[in-house]
């Protein structure tokens, strides 16, 4: 059986409806209700925010158990939650406990922009992971494509847009947490995060559809 050609710039698909419903319940509804109820019962803000963080964390763990392996997105979510709670403790400002996705977005965005300066765009490695499925032969093929100018340009454009987009989302998330009421921030921050990712994925798909056929890279590389 011959290998099927991999797309020029592979990207993960948008989450299916069951995953979106689980996200709505565990990342938005239950954290919001937890904070509202606990604050009305007299709990300290940090305690309420920490308790609310248990739901998105459990969502990540449930996804890991279902997949039987961790994923980069889930790891980013957990890192963001832990970082925000640590900042809340270190600064004695419970508002940092509301900034759940911003640390992961900021880190990814910064890594994207830094990778542009060293000649290996970060989105090249992200796309390679989704396109090759870990197959050694396909990974080797993808590695050689980075020497093709048109392919490298596409990877740099993807990396630049994802870098700027995720950094902008991180700043917006921090602004929402510190400028709006806690209950509003709990609703808006995860919605903004998933909207940003969905918009970037949709744009990436459009780039993928308009990119040259993979055979063009092979012909250019051997020319």
Fraction in helix: over 70%
Q: Hey, roughly how much beta strand do the residues contain? A: under 5%
> Would you report the number of β strands?
0
Global morphology: elongated
Number of domains: 1
Oligomerization state of this entry? single chain
Return Rg in Å: 20 Å
Q: Could you report the average pLDDT, rounded to the nearest whole number?
A: 81
Q: How many strands, which pairing sense, and closed or not: the largest β-sheet?
A: none
Low-pLDDT stretches are 1-8
Order of helices and strands: HHHHHHHHH
Feature tags:
single chain, 223 residues, mainly alpha, 9 helices, 77% helix, 0% strand
Topology diagram in text:
Layout: H1 17-40, H2 45-67, H3 72-91, H4 102-115, H5 122-132, H6 136-145, H7 149-179, H8 182-210, H9 214-222
Question: Nutshell version of this structure?
Answer:
With 223 residues, the chain is mainly alpha-helical. Helices cover 77% and strands 0% of the residues.
Protein model, in words:
The chain has one domain (17-222). The protein is elongated. The chain has nine helices and no strands. Helix 1 (17-40) runs antiparallel to helix 8 (182-210). The two termini are 27 Å apart. It has helices at 17-40, 45-67, 72-91, 102-115, 122-132, 136-145, 149-179, 182-210, 214-222. It is mostly helical.
